[in-house]
Amino acid sequence: MPAEIRMPRTPPPELGVMLGAARMRAGYRLREAARLAGIGHEYLLRLETGQRTPSRSVATVLADVLELDDAERAELLALALADAGRDHPDRRVPGSPIGNRAGVHRHHPD
After folding, report:
1. Global pTM?
2. Burial group, residue 77, by CB count within 10 angstroms (0-12, 13-18, 19+)
3. Between residues 101 and 28, the one the model is more confident about
4. Residue at 26 is within a domain
5. Where is the composition biased (Basic and acidic residues) (predicted)?
């Protein structure tokens, strides 16, 4: 059976801008935010530059790591893909969480 060919789904430019601004507001460098989210820094850069759309599981973890407000979280999750990346039906591993959620540390500047 031939593999299904999917068309690329490009996010709106404001999504990347919002993610980059949220990361800076949280006080994280790109590599640190990516590590906390359990994704590669190149992938996070592609998200922030509007080259990629996150899967729903990546979006959920990023929302937690970047401490998105309710409106930002809703926007990110509305644009996230339910059938891409780690959420693609052929890649799902039952009971397997994304990243190291126990290792997520909140950054609170005092």
Report:
1. 0.72
2. middle
3. 28
4. yes
5. 84-93
